């Protein structure tokens, strides 16, 4: 196999350079070597070390951040962008592979099995949140709590005596899970909607208004589909009191019928990566547009300082 020198930088803490989404796809066709002078550099949004590399640069973000095409030769992000240098790859897709979730997400349950699971759920609703900056989520928690007790197992609004050690283990006893994104942006779908589905709970989702392109809208409660929070809460309480409605939701397929299959998505990503590697095109890092990127970074720093001041 052809040797391909890779490296990864500016990712989140403890990012494994030899066991991640991109490495695992590429290793099928290439003999991969992690090298300080790579042929291809994958980078994310948690630093600027990528500026020290003049090779082909591929940007990936799972955050609500837009790619800067003056810095990268290709970008993978959550966004719906009409650009030949971009492919939509939301965080939840990476999450599925990393935690080996696909089989369970696609597994069809029987009515008997689902009924038993639902009947064993002894608690109403919960959330597990560590980011205090999404006021939408906090406000909704308080509103729903006026009708029935909602448990909070995270660092925000904790009311169970301390933070839970294992989120997935904690939520499994609940009928509903507040699954709000940290921010709302078309296309931005994280793992938050999947975790309750994996535990046979019903997600109460807010965030990506186009989430129905990814996940089956019959499998969760979509905040954006209601005219008011009052109507949303009425629906939640109705399902809470009606086992037939709840079980029907749990039985629904996880993914939207219009979504590209996970296997096809893998195939498309592999084709893109192979094309980038084999094309041997002049990297953007040594083209004149790199100066435009440097200027953009300078402007961003000045803006940040002004806002902080």
What brief labels describe this structure?
11 helices, alpha/beta, globular, single chain, 309 residues
Question: What's the gist of this structure?
Answer:
The chain has 309 residues and is α/β, with parallel strands linked by helices.
Give the topology, please.
Elements: E1 2-9, H1 21-26, E2 30-34, E3 40-43, E4 56-60, E5 74-77, E6 86-88, H2 91-98, H3 102-106, H4 111-119, E7 123-127, H5 135-145, E8 150-152, H6 167-171, E9 174-180, H7 194-198, E10 202-206, E11 221-222, H8 229-240, H9 243-251, H10 262-279, H11 289-308
Parallel strand pairs: 1-2, 1-3, 3-4, 4-5, 5-6, 7-8, 7-9, 9-10, 10-11
Helix pairs in contact: 4-9
Overview of this protein structure:
This protein is globular. It is about 35% helix and about 15% strand. It is an alpha/beta fold and about 300 residues long. It contains 11 helices and 11 strands. Strands 2-1-3-4-5-6 form a 6-stranded parallel β-sheet, with helices on one face. About 30% of the residues are buried. It has helices at about 20-25, 90-100, 100-105, 110-120, 135-145, 165-170, 195-200, 230-240, 245-250, 260-280, 290-309, and strands at about 1-10, 30-35, 40-45, 55-60, 75, 85-90, 125, 150, 175-180, 200-205, 220. The longest helix has 20 residues, at about 290-309. α5 links the parallel β7 (about 125) and β8.
